[in-house]
Amino acid sequence: xxxxxxxxxxxxxxxxxxxxxPPSPDLVAAVDAASCGSQHDTPAPEAIPVKVSPLSPEPIxxxxxxxxxxxxGYHLASGDSRxxxxxxxxxDEKFGIIAMTANRHWLILDYGTKDGIAAVKAIGLAPMRxxxxxPTSIAFTLHWxxxxxxxxxxxxxxxxxxxxxxxxxxxxxxxxxxPPVTVLTEAAADYVALVGQDETGIKNTLMLPREQQTVTxxxxxxxxxxxxRLVALANGTKIVPYIFALWATPGHNAVxxxxxVPLWGDFWGPNANTQTVPVxxxxxxxxxxxxxxxxxxxxxxxxxxxxxxxGPGSVDIxxxxxxx
Length: 324
Fold this sequence. Notes:
Elements: H1 25-36, E1 46-48, E2 51-54, E3 61-63, E4 68-77, E5 86-92, E6 96-101, E7 105-114, E8 117-127, E9 137-141, E10 144-149, E11 154-158, H2 160-163, E12 170-174, E13 181-186, E14 191-198, E15 201-209, E16 218-220, E17 229-234, E18 242-248, E19 254-260, H3 265-268, E20 279-284, E21 290-296, E22 301-309, E23 314-322
Antiparallel strand pairs: 1-8, 2-4, 3-20, 4-23, 5-6, 6-7, 7-8, 9-10, 10-11, 11-12, 13-14, 14-15, 15-16, 17-18, 18-19, 19-20, 21-22, 22-23
């Protein structure tokens, strides 16, 4: 089995902005060399056979005002208890759908498409090398993946695009004196957004430059949904300030909101009070445990992939389109 490129990933950019510049070659080489290390003794992802069953959209997602279109959905069942308990999800142009689990494993979903409908063929499983604890969120930042470990107040960087699952996590920064970073997402070209929350709810949003050595953290509250817990954030374009926020209730149902402002500074800068009121996009009968988004330049829609845990060794995975 080969875990290769995927047909749905991703056209970043939009008609309103140019793609951001890539990281400097020297920085890429240095980080990749440190993350990849010696790969000759690192095995490829372990192939895990799965039984694949199609899912119907009605019990899972309800569109609000026709903004959501169901693309595909599958239930994956395996005899391996390591499959499931997903805490984060991302898409990589080289490796496809990448999920991470609470027990510190990568799950690589190998699939193909026919007439726009995905068909999951197998799952690859590999340990998260260098993970200091339970991961809770992952974000792609042009060349690397950032992963948060809130129990340790650490965010690490993985060169999955270059090293695959052999990548070793490199500490990027720690958060001291703040609520642990439980959710992070891609933001503007040079920034990633991190949200700290504890048992009392969301405390603040943090913005961190991608390459700056001396870090200055800017804080501002994001508009919280009363009675809900923030589960995940996603930015499909990686450029334009469309932020999707996934909220869950104690009853395990969930709401997907779209937060939009004209400029990134309006989210976290001095003009943050100019934010538009978040718009409810969809409701879920169950709370997704992983969420990632990508932008389709041809249609102008945001595609989204979500996972739902269904027990040891099994998981549901769905894909939807969102009109903007």
